[in-house]
Amino acid sequence: MTFAGQAATIRYVKLNGTGDGSSWANAAGNIQTVVNASVSGDQVWIASGTYPLTATLTMKEGVNVYGGFLGNETDINNRHKSDLNNNGIIEPWEFTNATILDGQNARRVLYQADAFDMGTTWDGITITRGSCPYGAGAYIRANGKLNN
């Protein structure tokens, strides 16, 4: 748990990362491992790329996960956006550096087992090729949110 005045930890993930997630230069490669190592109030930043999943990602209460990074940013507001669909409007979800979670048509991509007391957000990710008997990409309950 993060207490008032205590800085949240940011953990970093890149495709093929082999580090402990302590920085972009030392990024980890497994999203779920980094989420599991985080505590409420922490953030997980995921660099652009397509991440083929071998298991469903499980949300953790109070751990916010953000995609859309090139992989060198020092501020969450430095994620670049562009008019990817050329409609003259840059929508909130049009990240230049897309972070894609690929369920490979074999699994649900994102899952929240229980309702959360604390808000938890996954932002700036694209879910693709999710599969499960009751819907495609994500199962999210109270106080869980999928943005942009």
> What does the average pLDDT come to?
90
Could you state the order of secondary-structure elements as H and E?
A: EHEEEEEEEEEE
- The portion of residues assigned to helices is under 10%
The largest β sheet comes out as: 5 strands, parallel
Q: Write down the overall geometry.
A: globular
Q: What's the arrangement of strands in the largest beta sheet? A: 1-2-5-8-11
How many structural domains can be distinguished in the coordinates? 1
- The number of E-state strands comes to 11
Low-confidence stretches: none
What is the C-alpha radius of gyration, as a whole number of Å?
Answer: 15 Å
SSE-based structural type: mainly beta
The count of helical stretches stands at 1
Query: β content, as a range?
Result: 25-35%
| End-to-end Cα distance | 26 Å
Please explain how this structure is put together:
- The protein is mainly beta and 148 residues long.
- The protein has one domain (10-72, 91-147).
- Helix content is 5%, strand content 28%.
- It contains 1 helix and 11 strands, in the order βαββββββββββ.
- The protein has one helix at 31-37, and strands at residues 10-13, 43-47, 49-52, 57-58, 64-69, 99-102, 110-111, 120-123, 125-128, 138-139, 144-147.
- The strands form 3 sheets. The chain has a 5-stranded parallel beta sheet with strand order 1-2-5-8-11, covered by helices on one side. A 3-stranded parallel beta sheet has the order 3-6-9, with no helix packed on it. The protein has a 3-stranded parallel beta sheet with strand order 4-7-10.
- The longest helix is centred in the first third of the chain and has 7 residues, at 31-37.
- The two termini are 26 Å apart.
- The mean pLDDT is 90.
